[in-house]
Amino acid sequence: MRQVGRTDEALVAYSRAVELTPEYAWAWHGRGLVLSSLGRHEEALAAFLRAAQISPNDVWYWYKQADELIALGRYEDAQQPLARALKVQPDHAESWAKYGQVLRRLGRLSESVAAYDRALAIAPGYAWAWHGRGLALENQRYLEEALASYQRAAQEDPRGIWYWLNQVDPLLALDRLAEALPVVERALALDPRNETAWARKGQILRRLERYTEALEAYDEALRHAPDYGWAWNGKGLVQAAQDDWEAALQSYTNATLDAPGDVWFWYNRGEALFQLGRYAEAVAIWQRGLTIRQDHEPTRQKLQEVQRLLESLSE
Questions:
Q1: N or C: which end of the chain has fewer CB within 10 A?
Q2: Which residues of the chain have pLDDT under 70?
Q3: Helix (H, G, I), strand (E, B), or coil: what is residue 217?
Q4: Range(s) for CATH 1.25.40.10 in the chain?
Q5: H/E segment holding residue 260
């Protein structure tokens, strides 16, 4: 029943199984899988822990505990069950890759890459591990190596949409714009309704100064996800490049409404107001941005600039 999506019935069945046979590790594991799929991660963790207590030599019962701890944001705690998993089966590629994920989330990036490398030494065709390795390398700004890892992930599993999309940032940072567009088209071929892929296409076209096409791509992203702040901001950048500051202001305003925690969206909204000569409003918006990040130097510089301008106008 779990495999055909009848999760409520599956949960009842597994619960009845462990009630009748409390030492039935496989049923505890199944119960954990159902609870996890329902987003009930604390209960799922308890079920996997019980399975491991009953059958401590099953590597998956330890591995799944780590999965739930990661879902709960308990990255430090996730290391212990993975250590147990690798003690049970030292060549378990999935546990090495999961350990790489945990270390990456903890910011221990060099160790993370080493763990992913262990996984890939065991299973060279493991796409998820190649992708995670790319993330850890990109976070260290090893862009060429990160790109190669993402490309290998896509080669091993060409239907993994993020294996394509995560190639975009390194390609843009390396100024390889012409290569980025076919990559995002591959992602859109997999999922034509994916708002991230459409917004990324808009970003690439904007960088190529193909503004009309960029606006169309951003609009398509927003058609699928009207509250997508990053796409609204990207659309605003295109409109600003076309000197359409009124339209840009509306787009940036939508971006700050949908994603108020991004200081750059407030910065861009302030810039649009500044370009429209609405200086007092620009100051208020930039000050709002500084409540998110007090050390945002571009915003501080803009406030100084507008202050000098207002002083000169008052003389």
A1: C
A2: 1-5, 315
A3: helix
A4: 1-90, 245-315
A5: none
